[in-house]
Amino acid sequence: MKNLNGKVALVTGASRGIGAEIAIQLAPAGAKVIVNYSGSKQKADDVVNQIQSSGGEAIAVQADVSKTEDVKALFDKSIKHFGKIDVLVNNAGIMINKLLKDTTDEDFDKQFNVNVKGTFNTMREAAARLANKGSIINISSTTTRLMLPTYGAYVGTKGAIEQMTRVFAKEIGARGINVNAVLPGPTNTELFAHGKSDQFIERLASMNAFNRIAEPIDIAQVVCFLASDDAKWISGQTIGANGAMA
After folding, report:
1. Catalytic annotation on 140?
2. Are 189 and 13 in contact (CB under 8 A)?
3. By residue range, what is the domain housing residue 207?
């Protein structure tokens, strides 16, 4: 179903992993897609090429979402090319797994700058520049519902995103824009797998109802629904996409 016909979607951190799959799945639903990336130009171009080869429309735009001026330029270039932005998916994020006692100032600042400030920057820009009746989907994490050692600083960033989601839904709702957060569970991406043993991944998989970790498409399909007009009455929610893990 092309339930996103006529919509333009901006996906941050879309050169790989969940973000790339979200961008790829939005296109056959009818959306024109902006594939944002920070440093992985070739991978972003690969995502654009995949969308275009399937008959969709997409462009890649570089921007570091932690930087205010980059985000303004991202919106400028996207709107100049497609005329508007209807859907904002805040997917860009990093994860550094360390015990709190071992977390450096640099580790802390890096995660909060990308994960929290990046989401803040794009939502602040969207407050004036996202099209009326648009949709914002922020990617959080099921780890905010768990108590996993080494995730302390990371879940701090995702908890902040969830709270901003709730408040911003009330602030921007008068323009018909709904705002939600999706909380993936363990998902088969480079970011998730980095530094984790097979045994640890198997243990996480055993914690949900299906005894497997998610694939990126499992998350992308939830995002595509929330981006559609069918989900308009859902706003200010934190939605677990985790196979009943939590």
Report:
1. yes
2. no
3. 8-232
